[in-house]
């Protein structure tokens, strides 16, 4: 499968009609500055589809992209640290929780983790909530190009062991690792 078109549709901070138009949704979630926007840009072969920033917490709404006229990619704000006030962080976390657990949508969830750091306490907390709600989850081990070649297989196998029952895809936006595998996983017909 190949991504042939990608278009920004809208930013969302609450219920909108798009959520209920029966087009499959894929939610991208991860810590602030985990690389969600870079991943979206590399997946769609676009430099500026999703806005990237070095500032943690730049995404303040759920950005919706229409992919191949057949799927919505939902770029969620990051969880964890962000350059925002306590009230703003609470509002972002409430938006994420509402979309994933209360909005009556059933997105496939792509959880981005740092392949070097591995899953953090925040990552594992979000993962357990997603598992409890029965979401289909794909784990993307981002920045896989930073793993030393001599330790690569062992390191990836250790990561896989931390996510039993879930697909784990090593990924690198800069080195183009995992793009086809992730695209195939996200756009396959169930």
Task: Describe, in plain words, how this protein is organized in 3D.
The protein is an alpha/beta fold. Helices cover 29% and strands 22% of the residues. The protein is built from 5 helices and 7 strands. A 7-stranded mixed β-sheet has the order 1-3-4-2-5-6-7, sandwiched between helices. Helix 3 links the parallel strand 5 and strand 6. The longest helix has 17 residues. The two termini are 14 Å apart. The mean pLDDT is 89.
List keywords for this structure.
190 residues; alpha/beta; seven-stranded mixed beta sheet
Q: Could you name the ranges where pLDDT drops below 50 across 5 or more consecutive residues? A: none
Radius of gyration, in angstroms, nearest whole number: 16 Å
Lateral arrangement of strands in the main beta sheet: 1-3-4-2-5-6-7
**Total number of β-strand segments?**
7
Helices and strands: which structural class? Answer: alpha/beta
Strand content: 15-25%
Number of helices: 5
Relative helix content: 25-40%
* Inertia-based shape: globular
Order of helices and strands: EEHEEHEHEHEH
Sheet having the most strands: 7 strands, mixed
What would the average pLDDT be, to the nearest integer? 89
C-alpha end-to-end distance:
14 Å
Please write out the topology.
Elements: E1 6-12, E2 25-30, H1 36-43, E3 62-67, E4 71-75, H2 86-102, E5 108-114, H3 121-132, E6 137-142, H4 152-161, E7 167-170, H5 179-187
Parallel strand pairs: 2-4, 2-5, 5-6, 6-7
Antiparallel strand pairs: 1-3, 3-4
């Amino acid at each position: 499968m190949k991504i042939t078109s990608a278009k920004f549709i809208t930013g969302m901070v609450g219920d909108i009609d798009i959520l209920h138009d029966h087009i499959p949704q894929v939610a991208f979630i991860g810590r602030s500055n985990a690389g969600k926007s870079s991943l979206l840009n590399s997946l769609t072969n676009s430099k500026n589809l999703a806005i990237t920033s070095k500032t943690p917490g730049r995404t303040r709404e759920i950005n919706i992209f229409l992919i191949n006229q057949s799927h919505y990619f939902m770029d969620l704000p990051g969880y964890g640290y962000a350059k925002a006030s306590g009230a703003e962080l609470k509002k972002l976390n409430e938006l994420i929780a509402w979309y994933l657990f209360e909005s009556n949508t059933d997105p496939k969830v792509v959880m981005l983790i740092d392949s070097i750091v591995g899953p953090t306490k925040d990552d594992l907390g979000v993962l357990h909530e997603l598992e409890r709600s029965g979401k289909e989850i794909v784990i993307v081990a981002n920045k896989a190009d930073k793993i030393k070649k001599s330790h690569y297989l062992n390191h990836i196998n250790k990561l896989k062991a931390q996510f039993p029952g879930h697909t784990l895809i090593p990924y690198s936006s800069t080195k183009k690792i995992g793009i086809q595998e992730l695209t195939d996983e996200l756009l396959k017909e169930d």
